[in-house]
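Review box. Two proteins, two foldings.
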Amino acid sequence: MTQLAFASATELARRIKDREVGSVELLTHYLDRVDRFNPDLNAIIVDIRDEALARAKAADQALAAGRDWGALHGVPMTVKESYDIRGTPTTWGVPELKDSIAEKDALSISRLRGAGAVIFGKTNVPYMLSDFQSYNDIYGTTNNPWDRERAPGGSSGGSAASLAAGMTGLEMGSDIGGSIRNPAHFCGVFGHKPTWLLLPPRGHATRGVLSPSDISVIGPLARSATDLALAVGICAGPDEIAARGLKLDLPKLSKSPGELKVAVWRDDAMAVVDGNVAARVDAVAEALAQAGAEVDFDARPVEAEHAHTVYQCLLQATMSARLPAERYEATAKRVEALDPDDTSRDAMVQRSQVARFRDWNANNEQRTHLRWQWHAFFERFDVLVAPIMSTSAILHDHRPFAERTLTVNGKPEPYFNQVFWAGLASGANLPATVIPTGLDDQGLPIGVQLIGPEYGDLVTIGIAEFLEQQGFSFSPPPGY
């Protein structure tokens, strides 16, 4: 059964439907592993096993009666704490929200249940989903199963750790600054950041919020690329309002690997990457070249500093809008104290946290220009291969953000510099798929992202499926 714990959700569904294993049996196996491993990892922090066991029993009974619930019939899974699941807390790691109990399921949760999923828990996050680590004052710190002295990433850190440790069959996370892709990279699993709003996010919000957040998306993490496509297919598509006039028709990968045109952005002065990370980007590029793809290391869709500045201004405006009133006011006072003559990029980004709509709109206009530049780029190329982070998994560091640094190639670098790589896709609404590519010289996993055109989600996932077949696949951490 241990091998089954690390199977893909697609394979688990097949085995359930072929009566090789029952849903109750499989869920019990995962729960046994949760009881064994989760005390040291603290990845799954909300437990609804009694409800899940009842649903798993119903799944087995339905199958015995010839009723198939869908593509995830009976498959046990968990979801990020920031999703609403009826009767459970949705806190986003904020102590003031610890008693905020969801009254109904998020839309994506309803769609996953409609496809037969058995949801048995929720996974840990950082405060307000705003860190490359996953810890908060409600649920504590989540550890990386590859090295418990290190972070599993954030903000979907509990999601990735649970998958890597074989404690769940599938996961749903969210991403605004790499929050799906960073944990997938740190924990050696697959993750997909979808095109903005391709998967309706209703119910992935703090209480009472219905408006979709700028930049932010919801999306899957998994142990196979095929599972990413499965979850996107289940959760994507217009909500009830948009469905009156819209239907989804995503293009799939229609080219053979040998027909692909691949751009590679392996490093940049904006966020220097460790040599181990750059080497894994090279390995992915080489695998595609060996398959016959045309590979270009020099092509660039946008100017790096400009694109990053626009993304940061929009990101900071979005993140500050989520702050409690007293913290927002403190931010406003800090910005007011800036020298009016300071026109540096750092000052510009800080001012964007309390920007007037006119200023936000100017940044949005710049983003739209960047989107069209990316569109033109993807008229010539099928995919961009790039790092997602500067280093492999970092040691736990709970100091104030301003005191944190990263060591890259033996030198200290600012902690948040590495969001540059996430911002390439996030700042232009693009899909990006992270694949595991192997281990660095510390024995830690390294992921690489495949960025595609808007609504090219199944294209990047299709390329990920090919690369998975070439050996860029999930491997369990030792001891699990």
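Next protein.
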Amino acid sequence: MRLNLARTLPRSAANGPGERFVLWVQGCPLACPGCWNPDTWAFERRDLRSVEDLAAVIVATEGIEGVTFTGGEPFAQARALTALAERVRTAGLSVFVFTGYDLDELSRPEHLALLAVTDVVVAGRYVESKRATGLAWRGSANQRVHFLSDRYGPADMNEVAEVEFHVDSDGTLTVTGFPDAELLAFAVDE
């Protein structure tokens, strides 16, 4: 079983509780206007990775709390992500998922299987007119945080990094999290 990924980040504190390994999946049927990751919308082949190999890399990453699935739309690859989530949870890591769907829209068997191995899901389409800063793990005020296990709760939302800047060895700048417009404009201009 393989996943089609847009990119990965081995360590982030802005994409869920604690330090997390982040996977951006490729492909999203929602294409929300103003989305931060429009390069992940197309259902094109980018970086195919086997679930087994990816699980080994994630589990071998020292000092992380868990893994975060974002995108694109994670529930478009629910079966493969469920298999990955089962493996990382067996290793003691948590699973956090960002989705553009509302929770009640995730009713297909493969969606329910992924939800069953998820600790926290942030659900709801990004709505540009409801863009808000200062909301833990959310870009627009309509999005909701759902705690699906007892591993985390609302108190875990208090000390959250809103934005991170990562510079790769080739000089590529990755901005992740939820920066305000001024900070994002500054990062892009520089």
